[in-house]
Amino acid sequence: MEDAIALRRKIAKLIGYPDFADYILDDRMAKNSANVMAFLERTWARLKKKGRKELRQRARLKNKRTGGIDKTLDAWEWRYYNNQLKKEKYSLDHEKIKEYFPLETVIGGMFDIFGRVLGIKFAPADLPVWHKDVRSYEVKNADGSTAAYFYFDLFPRDGKYKHAACFGLRRGRELADGSYALPAAAIVANFPSPSGDVPPLLKFDDLVTLFHEFGHVTHQILTKARYCKFSGTSVSRDFVEVPSKMLENWAYYGEALKHVSGHYKRPEEKLPDGLIKKLIDTKNMDSGLVYLRQIFFSILDLKYHTAKGKVDTTKLYEKLKKKISLVPMSPGTHPQASFGHLMGGYEAGYYSYLWSELIAADLFSVFEEKGLMDAETGARYRDLILAPGRSYDEAAQVEKFLGRPAAEGAFLKSIDAA
C-alpha cells in the first residue's frame, strides 16, 4: 500500500497536481480535497456526541458482563457488544420477521411502489436468458411505450457471483438514425431458494439490499443520455450511489413495509406495527459509531493521498482511529492491509459513500414532504436525477431538483443526529 501511495503521488506530480487526491477529485462532484475534508470534519463534529453516548452504553454492558475488569471497548469487540445491546433492547427475531417477506410479495410490492413513483410498469417478457432461474421484464412507460429491459437472477448456484449487484447489460444511447438504444440491466443476487412448501423468504437486510440494487437499476434503465459514455450510472464516483441509497429510504417507512409484506401462510396479514417500529428504531441505535467509523476511513484515505512525503500507514491509522472513530486500533495489527477499497477503485474516493448518502437523504426529504408515492415528485426525480446520467453537472442536477444546493440537515435528521 505504501508503494502504491508513493507511485500515486508521482503520477499526480507528473500531471501537475499538488497530490493524488486532488488529481482524482478534479472531475468529481467534490472538486478537490479541501472540500472533502471540510465536509468530513463538519459531519464528524456533529456525530461525536452521539457516538460517545453509544460507546458509553456498550462499555457499561461490557463492564456488567466482565465484572468491570476493563472499561475499554476494543476494535475487535465493539460490534459484539453492539449486537448484544440490540438483542437486549429490541429483541428482534429476524427469523420471525422474514415470514412476512416472501420474495414474490416483496417484488410485487416493490414494482408497485417504484412503478407509481417513477411512472413505469414491469411486464414479464419472453426474452433470452442465461439460466432457467432468470426472469426477464419489459419496462413500460405510462403511455405504453417500452422504456427498457430488466432481468432478475436471484438464487445461488455453483460458479455464480457470490454477492448482490446491479449489472448494466446494455447502455442507453442515441443511434445514428436518431432512434434510442433501449437500456437493459440485471440484479444478480443470492437470496434463499424455495425449500419444500416454504417460498423464498427475505430477511429485512435482504429487503434493504434489494431496494438498494433496484436504485442502481432505475439509474441504468431510465437514462436518456445521448452518449453511451454518459449513460445511466456512468456518473461521478461520488454520485453513483445516490439513486441506490435513495431507494433504501423507503424500507424504513411503515407505509412502504406494509406494501411489500404479507405473511407467507396468510398473505393478507401485513408486518405488524410493533415489528415495524422496532425495525425503524433499530436503524439509528448505533448510527453514531457506524458513521464515525465511516468518517475515519474517509479521512484516513484522504490523509494517505494528500501526504507530502513517505507515509507510515500503520502509525497514521493508529493515530486517527481512536481520535475519529473513538475505538482504538488493536496493538500489533495492520488493519490497513484489509482496506480493500484503496486497491479497488476507491483510492482518494472512499468519502463517496457518505457524500452520496447525504445527497440521497436530501433528495428523499422532498418525498417525505410531498408523499412517499407522489408521482409528480417522482417524475421530477426521474427527469432531473436519473435521466441525464452524466450529461450535466451532478451538483447542478441536485440543485435544480431541490431548488438549492445539497445540505447535511436531512441526513443528520435521518440518523438521529440533528
Describe this structure in words.
The chain has 418 residues and is of the alpha+beta class. The protein folds into two domains: 226 residues, Orthogonal Bundle (Neurolysin, domain 3); 187 residues, 3-Layer(aba) Sandwich (Collagenase (Catalytic Domain)). It contains 16 helices and seven strands. It has a five-stranded mixed β-sheet with strand order 1-2-3-7-4, covered by helices on one side. The chain has a two-stranded antiparallel ribbon with strand order 5-6. A hairpin with a 4-residue loop joins strand 2 and strand 3. Helix 8 crosses helix 13 and helix 11 runs antiparallel to helix 12.
Apparent shape: globular
Determine the CATH topology of the largest domain: Neurolysin, domain 3
Number of domains: 2
Overall pLDDT confidence: 95
Q: How does the major sheet shape up?
A: 5 strands, mixed
Order of helices and strands: HHHHHHEEEEEEEHHHHHHHHHH
In CATH terms, the superfamily of the largest domain is Neurolysin, domain 3
Proportion of residues in extended strands: 5-15%
The helix tally amounts to 16
Work out the helicity level: 40-55%
CATH structural architecture of the largest domain: Orthogonal Bundle
Tell me the strand order in the biggest sheet: 1-2-3-7-4
Q: How far is the first residue's CA from the last residue's CA?
A: 37 Å
**CATH class category label of the largest domain:** Mainly Alpha
Regions with little confidence, pLDDT below 50 for 5+ residues: none
